[in-house]
Amino acid sequence: MDDTALTLLRSIPFWDKALDTERQAGAIVSGYAAMVNDPILQKTIALQGKEESRHARLLQTLINRYGIELPERQPIEVPQNIEPVFTRFGFEECLDTFFAYGLFAIARESNVFPESIFTIFDPIIDEETRHIVFFVNWFTYTQIHRGQGFTPLRSVKTLWHYGKALSNLIAVFGNDDPSKTGFAVTGTDIFTKDLTIEKFLSICLSENQRRMSKYDPRLLKPQLLPRLASIALRILELIPKRKLETVERASA
Length: 252
Fold this sequence. Notes:
Layout lengths: L2 H9 L3 H19 L5 H27 L17 H28 L4 H31 L5 H22 L10 H4 L10 H16 L11 H28 L1
Helix pairs in contact: 2-3, 2-4, 3-5, 4-5, 4-6, 4-8, 8-9
């Protein structure tokens, strides 16, 4: 990696939050796995916990390898009532992963970093995809198993959880995000200066479709952000046309 790329890599406001997120994910998911009685679910969730912890170790290795300076991380504390924390984390991961698809593709297309970096992280993105596919199916299965499978009720609970997760992303666009929590949403200008919101959403949607297409169509997939992004794109595509029609009518 040349000096320019290394300087850019070190300047990305990503590493501390990414490392903390993966460390917390490993602890939360592994902690919840230990509480699950169903042997199949327990094995699956435990595997996810190991993968999240491995992601954290990989990030720490890169941080050490490239001399990225971070303060010493605090120990991760896992609460006893862990299922609500596991659930909140799952919905947040559904949102974060959708935007990460776009950021990863844009960074790769920019050719700023060696392809070997993306070769390392591409399987990680695939693992995160598998995690969120499992999560939405786990959440639905759990609600039905507990007698809360009535579709309108389940939809309300899902929207409520997504609403809490979205509140974190909304804060990104204000001034109260000193930890750069929303780097996946706002950090694309590091790699390209002429990116439009339309192009970013289009890339997120196409990457979401590409990665989700690997899974059995009978499985549930995260739908909220893909649907919202599709609606936003349709609205944005209409705006220039409306402006042009207004000008043409005014000059007629």
